[in-house]
Amino acid sequence: IADRTAHSLSKSAEGTLSVISFIDRIAKASQDQATAIAQINQGVDQVSSVVQINAATAEESAAASEELSGQSSVLRELISNFNLRGTASADTYL
Predict the structure, then answer these.
(1) How many domains does one find in the chain?
(2) What is the pLDDT of residues 69-91, one digit of tens each?
(3) 3-state SS, one letter per residue, for the chain
(4) What pTM, to 2 d.p., does this model score?
(5) Does residue 94 lie within any of the structural domains?
């Protein structure tokens, strides 16, 4: 009986060590995944920041384009009032 008990305890200890090793591998893999997820989150935050900056720049560009369009219309109107040498008005050249 003592031999069987010792053998059973030995097998139980081996099984326990195997489970501990398996749990350690799971913990390491989980830690690696957590690190990867943190890096992904950081990358997403950086992309979000760039997108916000690009959106603001696009709005500023649109406003500047609108302003230039208005100024171009005013300039075209002012130039159309001039007559160049000869009989052609400035509209002929615009």
Answers:
(1) 1
(2) 999 999 999 988 887 776 555 55
(3) CHHHHHHHHHHHHHHHHHHHHHHHHHHHHHHHHHHHHHHHHHHHHHHHHHHHHHHHHHHHHHHHHHHHHHHHHHHHHHHHCCECCCCCEHHHHC
(4) 0.58
(5) no
